[in-house]
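step: validate -> pass
step: tokenize input -> pass
step: predict -> running
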Amino acid sequence: MKKRKLKYKNLALATTFSILVLLLAFSFAFIIGGEKSSEFVINDEYMQRTNPITGNSIFSDAINGIKGFFSADTQSSTFGEWDPPIEHLLAINVMGTGSGYVFSDDFIISCPDVCNFSYEEGKNVTLNAVTDPSYNLFSEWQGCNLVYGSENTFCNVTMTGNKTINATFTLRTSFNLSLLKVGGGFGLIASVSTPSQADQLNCGSSCLNQNVSYNMSTIVTLTPSPMGGSTFIGWGGYCSGTGVCNLNMAHDTSVTANFSLIVPSQLQLKLWQEGDINGTVISTSVPDNGDQFNCGSNCDYQTKLFINGTNVSLSFTSPLNYYVAYHLGCDNPYNENLPSTWNRCNVSLRANRTVRVAFEKPTLELLKNSATSSGTVTSNPAGINCGLTCTQDYFDFDFNSIVTLIAVPSSGYNTNWVNCDVVYGFANNFCNMSMNNWRSVNVTFNSVVCNTGADTAPYGNCDQTIQQDEINNYIDGYYLGNVNIVDVSISLDAFL
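step: predict -> pass
step: emit ->
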């Protein structure tokens, strides 16, 4: 009887000791559970595996046949039979002539440092290939379920089994040389290379930037050549100084070339007179150079010298019956609808400048928008004489004069004007134009239905004609005073 009690006592002690060892082992496992190593053995009889992401652990005691699960969320253990989740190994290989890294979206994989990890079945893992584009290029993935991204640098893997993913990086063998020209001057940048190649930098006056690709370790020599009126200020970027620049193409390289204009102490202001006649031009300036424009008929193609930065004001005076039709090269633009802009020109001299001015009589343009033989148009003062077959006519009249256009429609037509200052007359036959600028007017003769019945006052039906003395009296008495029109006849219906 005593021996049996002792046996039970020893069994209780052994069980207590096993549980104590188990708890101590579990505490130790919990402390190191955050490490990336997912499996370790305390002794030959005890084993524990910990998920570094969740912190959950499974463990087993071979001697006592105890299995358990530790939950990191509840900080508690469950003893008994428990089947661990199925896991698959994800292995990354970094390959190729270049170098780069592969990172997983959970940051566990950081290859080539950490390239393998076991994930639970069905887990979706996203890998990202990263490299220094100055020296390497990412080439391709192998083994991915899905490749995406603007440069295909992302790889999606679904863990349905053990997976091996290859990421290939390529070492760059050529590099770009980028040139940018700055400054206000002009010049040429040309290159030669060792070893030589056909494609070289050749950036002239119309070129602002240029890019050329060279093989690795190529020696490129850049030479600046300023053009007339410019000087080379110096290099920027990977070049320095003001002479030739030698570059070893071991990476992408950018340089700037600065050309500046050579600014003289004195600048030229040229005056050209254009148009029908020469007018008077007088200049003033700040500061006053003592040699100003003050000329009339001899102004054409004159040149004056002014100190750089001088502000010059030119005033134009037109001959009688003329006006300033345009000026070019002034800081203040000419506006044909603003007479205040016509006779004044301002020039700020920061470079050589040319001013052109034209003195002309204003032109009157007549456009006849109707069928041939539908009517005629003449003018007072004389100048416009648009007969039956005419569709367009021009004439230059005195500045600020009043011109009257007289329309005489053919039998069966009436008159319509567009752009006249004033339209008048019993049948709208007269159009007044004030010649204070270039003017254009349209006239249209439209067919009408004549009244063939009883006479229509004051002239009767369409078959009758107005005699010469009647139209002269009509014009003289109502519209043009002492104007006389010779050999004009008009059908009656034009006045109906």
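step: describe -> Helices lie at 2-31, 468-478.
step: cleanup -> pass
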